[in-house]
Amino acid sequence: MKIIINNIEFPYNEGCRLLKLKYNECPMKEIEDIWNDIVPMTFKEIATLFRNTEQRRVAVGCLGLERLVKEVKPKLIDKETLKKQTTWVTQSGELITKEFNDTYELYKVDGDVWSKGVENAWRKPQPVYYVKCKDTSTDREYMIWIDARSVFETNDNRTTNRWYSSEDDYGSKITAIDAIAWTIQTDIPKGCIEKIVRQGDCILIKKKEGVRSENTRHLTEEEYKTLLELES
To answer: Fewest CB within a 10 Å sphere: which of 14, 77, 149, 190?
Structure first.
């Protein structure tokens, strides 16, 4: 028997333990008789058991931000607040302009915490990073795990032929805005975006006239700061 959480399949035992993390009361009649005996999964177990990226993403979501912070004690690496202006339409149809501060925080989780229980003696466990941000309309906090090396390469303009060491701690070389920009992908070449509009998780990117799509890439810090015109 399998357990499906957020459209992702988990083995029965692990799935039950994740459900115990996510819900205060049993969400399935099929496991009501064992619900009180189920032991919730910890972050260290999630990191050790799930190598599948989607499984890990859903599992961390079940854990929740508050419990994760208590377990892994992340270190704040960078914090930046952008002053933004956006346009809203009221229920009466009135168009209003709203100014707000949008804060992003980049956190580091020590590699020993993330990799505990994984045998790999020849290689030092690398730290991992996530960026924390708020939903501008609901004020809910979100955390998004990022690939620090990929973020760095996206924003490193020195040379496209530079050799990157897998042992480098790239998280120390990036900013919170680098990280949040990296979470957005587009097939529009650099310099060819007219504007970006964001509504929650929905990203709309308008390209300049006559521009052709190319290979998919991540947005840069500069693009995120200068081209994001409307956000809600």
So the answer is: 190
